[in-house]
Design goal:
The structure holds two protein chains of two kinds. By secondary structure, chain A is mainly α. Chain A has seven helices and no strands. The chains are: A mainly alpha, B alpha+beta. At the A-B interface, helix 1, helix 3 and helix 6 of A face helix 2 and strand 1 of B.
Chain lengths: 171, 260
């Protein structure tokens, strides 16, 4: 992947963070709020693999943490691991299936929020947390389809990104 | 526990400061301006007849309020003269600082908002935040150079000393604000607030107004919080509790005020 395309993905995540700040709460349905940054991150990671996905995860985690304003470490590590694990799926999925973004984003939302929960538990509000994550994961899944195929339209996940790793060449 | 110096002061670290200033504030401020322009200058074109009716109603309301205002100003003068005669301590007159809501609940785990005022505007920690109608929204929990984080009342970490004003007592009842039961309003991530720790014999009914009590030192007295929607008796603690529908709409905050 070229530097320009990496920067393009970083810019897409930045736009997602603007939407997260300005739009997410206003389009809440039944208390469910989408997480634009996480949804975009998962779509990106699945398409570009775990190496570059991890780099983008770091950026996504940083943007989320800046907006959250607290628990920087937990926020960033949960996004980092989610991006890495979703990126590991790259070689095992049919990229043009419409079910891929739906399923991966749904599960990745539970994974990410679960990791965050482990690092910053909120046991008194477990029931609220379950409802919140369920709503968020459904909302994220629906949003993931246009985001995922938008990225595919920009040729992400093509041959240029398939399994390429600079480490493989240098080792 | 090791804490960063900036955390101890409640101010954001340099990286967060710079990121918010460069990456978020300009774009979110511009989108807020565009949204306001759209609603005021464009969308309002299609609401002409409704606005004319509303304008007429507001004109008569303004006339009534001006009349009430004159009466209240006279009473305030009289009150201040009497207080000075009795050597009472003068009440604080705090200023309202308008602010845009740049980000609303940006992180799912916490109900918070980012306001467009920060250290450069002399915003300090624990300043109360109000919505555009003067209803309590929360308090400042972190300050960066040009933004501040407001923890909303609906968050589980929020609480406010509150007092009941019976629904049948009008604004002309001078004792109403000090007669109601006192408790604590806490958030639970839902649309409603829990009004806890009310004395078992307190008189509280559905529809009663809940305002800040002024106890606790963070929120001044008599800022509206919401209205009681249900009352129940906590058998285990032998205390009354109530559910309060907040007056502020926490999902559609666009502008607000910080109480200096």
């Amino acid at each position: 992947m070229t530097t320009a395309r990496s920067l393009l993905l970083a810019a897409i995540l930045l736009v997602a963070s603007w939407l997260q700040a300005g739009l997410s709460a206003r389009i809440a349905l039944f208390h469910a709020r989408p997480d634009f940054i996480l949804t975009t991150l998962v779509c990106i990671s699945v398409l570009i693999g775990n190496l570059y996905g991890t780099v983008q995860s770091l950026w996504a985690g940083f943007l989320t943490a800046v907006l959250a304003g607290f628990n920087y470490g937990s926020v960033m590590v949960s996004r980092l691991l989610t991006g890495f694990l979703c990126g590991s799926l790259q070689q095992h999925i049919i990229q043009d299936s419409p079910f891929i973004p739906l399923i991966t984003v749904f599960l990745a939302t539970w994974l990410c929020e679960g990791l965050y929960f482990l690092m910053a538990p909120n046991l008194h509000y477990l029931r609220w947390w379950t409802h919140m994550v369920l709503g968020e994961s459904i909302y994220n899944s629906i949003l993931s389809v246009p985001i995922y195929f938008g990225l595919r339209a920009l040729k992400f996940g093509g041959e240029a990104d398939d399994g390429f790793s600079p480490f493989v060449e240098t080792i | 526990m090791v804490r960063h110096h900036s955390q101890a002061r409640g101010s954001s670290d340099a990286l967060t400061n710079a990121s918010r200033k460069v990456l978020f504030s300009p774009v979110l401020h511009t989108s807020h301006s565009v949204d306001s322009w759209w609603q005021v200058d464009v969308a309002s074109i299609f609401e002409g007849p409704r606005l004319a009716v509303e304008n007429e109603a507001l004109r008569s309301q303004v006339a009534n309020l001006m009349d009430q205002n004159r009466t209240l100003a006279d009473q305030a003068d009289e009150n201040s003269r009497l207080r000075s005669l009795l050597n009472f301590k003068s009440r604080d007159t705090r200023q309202l600082m308008p602010a845009e809501v740049l980000a609303l609940k940006p992180f799912s785990e916490r109900d918070s908002a980012i306001f467009s005022r920060g250290g450069e505007d002399e915003v300090t920690l624990k300043e109360p935040a109000l919505d555009e109608y003067g209803n309590l929204v929360g308090q400042v929990t972190a300050v960066s150079s040009n933004t501040c984080d407001v923890l909303l009342l609906t968050d589980t970490l929020s609480s406010a000393g509150a007092r009941v004003i019976p629904a049948n007592s009008g604004p002309k009842d001078p004792d109403a604000a000090s007669a109601g039961a006192v408790g604590i309003c806490v958030g639970d991530h839902s649309d409603n607030l829990q009004f806890n720790d009310l004395p078992p014999n307190s008189e509280i009914e559905v529809g009663d107004l809940v305002v800040t009590s002024g106890l606790g030192g963070i929120y001044p007295k008599n800022i509206p919080i919401g209205r009681v929607t249900s009352v129940f008796f906590d058998q285990t603690r032998f205390l009354k509790s109530a559910t309060v529908a907040p007056a502020a709409n926490f999902d559609h905050l666009q502008e607000g005020f910080l109480l200096k």
